[in-house]
């Protein structure tokens, strides 16, 4: 039969135009024990030192990273899709370059220029460039959180006036900031004298606090 030479030519053409992965030398050494040619003594020494962190397992190459997590090595054709998915995918939030890199590592992928490719992709992302950086104008106002222990800080205020009940028209309420413990007493007036009398009873039970927070009304101003 006449030999059909189209099939070999097509195969050679496909091989010549296919992308050579960055880990081709490492794969050849681990799978077939083939040492790359043309390497100097220093390059061979570095190659054998780097290849210790790679593993070949059934058509996939894995790399043990600095955090001792084994991740799959990917080729150049997969890199753009992985970065796009981890940065602007349906479940992602257009993070910066560092956060996008962490998302890629959490997904279990690795290649040598991972950090540079992620930062380059973020700088070329149109949506990220339109958003820009967060300025002081965009920040939410934050209230100071007072750090204290139980019964160290009390909040005090009057409630009322209410309709007279047994001669009492006001309720003096104090609340502990930490435990939310509430102390209350019905009083006939809301002057500083009854406040001092109430606080003496409070201090004898819970000791003297570090601070008492009030609205600085006249009934809380007393030497």
UniProtKB/TrEMBL annotation:
Residues crossing the lipid bilayer are: none
* Sequence ranges assigned to domain Integrase catalytic in this UniProt record: 137-223
Q: Which PANTHER family match?
A: ENDONUCLEASE-RELATED (PTHR47266)
Please report the name of this protein according to its UniProt entry. Integrase catalytic domain-containing protein
Organism, scientific name? Gossypium arboreum (Tree cotton)
């Amino acid at each position: 039969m006449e030999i059909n030479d189209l099939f070999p030519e097509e195969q050679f053409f496909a091989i010549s135009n296919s992308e050579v992965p960055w880990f081709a030398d490492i794969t050849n050494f681990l799978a077939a024990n083939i040492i790359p040619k043309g390497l100097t003594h220093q390059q061979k020494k570095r190659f054998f030192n780097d290849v210790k962190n790679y593993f070949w397992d059934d058509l996939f190459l894995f790399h043990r990273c600095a955090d001792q997590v084994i991740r799959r090595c990917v080729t150049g054709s997969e890199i753009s899709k992985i970065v796009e998915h981890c940065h602007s995918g349906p479940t992602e939030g257009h993070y910066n370059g560092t956060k996008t890199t962490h998302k890629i590592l959490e997904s279990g992928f690795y290649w040598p220029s991972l950090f540079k490719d992620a930062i380059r992709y973020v700088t070329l992302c149109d949506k990220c460039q339109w958003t820009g950086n967060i300025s002081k104008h965009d920040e939410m106002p934050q209230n100071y959180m007072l750090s204290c222990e139980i019964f160290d800080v009390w909040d005090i205020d009057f409630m009322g006036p209410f309709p007279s009940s047994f001669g009492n028209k006001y309720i003096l309420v104090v609340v502990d900031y930490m435990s939310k413990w509430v102390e209350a007493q019905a009083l006939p007036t809301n002057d500083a004298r009854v406040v001092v009398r109430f606080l003496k009873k409070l201090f004898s039970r819970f000791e003297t606090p570090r601070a008492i927070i009030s609205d600085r009304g006249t009934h809380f101003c007393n030497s």
